[in-house]
Amino acid sequence: MAIYDIAIIGGGINGSGIARDASGRGLSVLLAEAADLASGTSSASTKLIHGGLRYLESYDFRLVAEALAEREVIWAMAPHIVWPLRFVLPHAAGARPAPLIRLGLLLYDYLGSRRLLPGSRALDLRSDPAGAPLRAGLRRAFEYSDCWVDDARLVVLNAVDAARRGADVRVRCEVVRAGREGGHWTIELYDRVAGRTSTVAARVLVNAAGPWVGEALASRIAGSGRSRARLVKGSHIVVPRLFAHERAYIFQNPDRRVVFAIPYERDFTLVGTTDVDFTGDPRGIAASPDEIAYLCASVSAWLAKPVAPADVVWSYAGVRSLYDDGSSAAQEVTRDFMLELDGAGGEAPVLSVFGGKITTYRRLAEAAMERLAPWLPNAGKAWTRGAVLPGGDFPVDGIEALVASLYREHPELPAGLVHRLARAYGTRAGELLAGSRSLTDLGHRFGADLTEREVAWLVREEWARTAEDILWRRSKLGLRFTPTEQRDLEGWLAAHLGALAARTG
Fold first, then answer.
1. CA-to-CA distance for 45 and 152, rounded, in angstroms?
2. Is 396 exposed, middle or buried (0-12, 13-18, 19+ CB in 10 A)?
């Protein structure tokens, strides 16, 4: 039986990021995900690459600085799915004092290692377009920079790059049990699609199971330590577009929480998030009526036109597995990552991942490899800083040039489709569209602008297997699909998935 250097449990951002880093160092890697890539917490974020302005209040300067330093690194790695976004922070009586906010933003600028992102500034809401959607009486605001990211696609692209570098990526493949045996891990896997069990071995085991990290330690990884996970639920809502401009808002609430309102998928606004302690099974997690009402009330307090739960077109929730640092309130628990290593006296090690932010996933992967270095003497050096993700091999300011180039090559295709494909796949969009002259060449159209060509590509290249994988993770076209169109897609997948998946290998 062949022995992998590293076996990783969990295909979220941390697991996929570690798989990419390790495979690029010349190591043999197995990544096992029990469901779909990014099917848990990693597709349920606020979709920001940011330092976390509110963490300055808790004096967590190191976390903020490290996260801010990664913004432009990740933007340059994937400029098709990451782009800069300006945030407007309105100020009202009773909120944090304006001089304190300005000082905090100046510190945010200073810590940010910015080369391309513009700094913060003050706004007069009486004349700036950002004031138009807000309630009467607001006169002052501050504006600063962070970045937006398609979180689920970031996960998938890390897995794609890992596979290109030799990683064995297995979706819908559950780790049933792992036990130490003869200086390595023996791991039992269950393929949920094929319905069969197999066994592999690995020198090192990484537990990046997200909200299931504690469950893995307790019931799947024999002889491992106890869990220090604290589960915190965050929910978001999506409503029809609340404002015409392309900036986002960050609103301060009386409970000292902040809520974002972010332009989303052209016609919508994303609002979030909540922070509540969670117990139970994270599978099937959903935003509660109370959370939806809280988010609606939070943004309505700042807007001229209130938002009601009846306006919500979609909601989602995720559970973060944070490191339990003893904080009393969920929003006070550190968002920094913690790596716990279990293995001594020649035992095969298991590294468990707690917490972390999408923004710092690349640094987390490097830190994980540093911790595991004694067991992996043949590993190469750190390499991911400056290494682009698939489709990201163009300048950070080059998306419109890429769109124009694709449109010149495919002038008969709708401009909106070309733009969406460029944003989703970057330079790989040219591969997807190769040989096409018209919409007819792309095959059956399922709904919105999703075609048979793209669906087949997602199955072959990105491990998509279900309509949910395609409509809510590889894209957000579920916002535009009717139930009938979704059933059409499901029927097509049922008829063609076997042949396409076999070609995937």
1. 9
2. middle
Q: Please tell me the pTM assigned to this model.
A: 0.95
3-state secondary structure of 361: helix
Q: Residue 255: helix, strand or coil by DSSP? A: coil
Residues 317, 291 contacting (CB under 8 angstroms): yes
Of 210, 229, 233, 209, the closest CA to residue 221 belongs to 209
Q: Vertex 224, ends 220 and 225: CA angle to 5°?
A: 125
- Residue 254: Cβ-neighbour burial (10 angstroms; 0-12, 13-18, 19+): exposed
- The helix/strand/coil state of 232 is strand
Helices (H) and strands (E) in the chain, counts: 13, 20
| 3-state SS assignment for residue 205 | strand
Encoded amino acid at 63, one letter? L
Asked which of 58-67, 116-125, 137-146, 249-258 is least confident by mean pLDDT, the reply is 58-67
| Nearest in space to 54 (alpha carbons), one of 248, 247, 234, 260 | 260
Q: Average pLDDT, stretch 31-43? A: 96
The 3-state DSSP class for residue 447 equals strand
Structure confidence at residue 331 (pLDDT):
55
Write the pLDDT tens digit of every residue in 216-258: 998 899 877 666 788 999 999 999 999 999 999 999 988 888 9
Specify the long-range contacts of residues 402-406, CB closer than 8 Å, at least 24 apart.
402/80, 402/426, 402/427, 402/429, 406/430, 406/433
Which pLDDT value is given to residue 505?
A: 47
Strands 248-252 and 258-264: what pairing?
antiparallel
For residues 307 and 296, the answer to whether their CB atoms sit within 8 Å is yes
CB-based contact 458:450 (threshold 8 Å): no
